[in-house]
Design brief:
The protein is 61% helix and 3% strand. By secondary structure, it is mainly alpha-helical. The longest helix has 36 residues. A two-stranded antiparallel ribbon has the order 1-2. It has five helices and two strands; from the N terminus they run H-H-H-H-E-E-H.
Length: 200
């Protein structure tokens, strides 16, 4: 019952998460607040995938707005029966929430891979992914962080922002999954009729 009651508020929670995802992803383009590295393409390759902006950002934001619109009682009736109308709205909500699971899940995977790969920075051997062969071991090897000489504090910048993006996309994934579960329970357990009744 609680899941059904909270179903309408789940979509609203996606909006701030999507907005924060966009903001944090944009910060990845400006290490230490400087734009010179973005202009010279001296940034990690995963930054250019725009996951935080497109997938866990804009796409999730659009899905949230549509889901909220579907939950409004003034939504356009799709058929003659009120039960039928609610069933179709619930079905569309399930499809959209599943898309949200896919978008946020994809973003979470890419952010995690980016965190494991490590930052693209300048060292004694030139610009390279100097931690790519550590399988994420550099995350706890604080003494190795000093090998990145440029941009300054790039390792910390990379770890903090990617960790935040992983958390945001992970929360979006959980919320979208709960939304799917709420709509399925509402549809299959009797709140909405799953049969279209033809009025005579």
């Amino acid at each position: 019952m609680a899941l059904e009651t909270c179903g309408s508020c789940l979509s609203c929670l996606l909006i701030p998460l999507a907005l924060w995802s966009i903001v944090v992803n944009i910060l990845l383009y400006f290490p230490n607040g400087r734009s010179s590295h973005a202009a010279s393409y001296q940034l990690p390759n995963y930054v250019w995938y725009f996951e935080g902006i497109c997938f866990s950002g804009v796409m999730i934001l659009l899905l949230a707005v549509i889901l909220i619109a579907l939950e409004c009682s003034v939504f356009h009736r799709c058929c003659q029966s009120e039960s039928c109308n609610k069933t179709y709205r619930s079905f569309i909500s399930i499809v959209l929430a599943l898309l949200g699971v896919a978008f946020s899940g994809y973003s979470c995977i890419i952010f995690t891979l980016g965190l494991i790969q490590g930052p693209f920075c300048n060292s004694s051997g030139g610009w390279d992914y100097i931690f790519k062969d550590t399988a994420g071991g550099y995350l706890t090897d604080y003494s190795a962080w000093s090998r990145c000489t440029e941009p300054a504090n790039m390792v910390e910048w990379n770890i903090i922002l990617l960790s935040v993006l992983i958390a945001l996309s992970g929360l979006e994934l959980i919320i979208c999954f709960l939304k799917v579960a709420a709509e399925l329970k509402r549809t299959l357990c009797g709140t909405y009729s799953v049969f279209v009744q033809v009025t005579k």
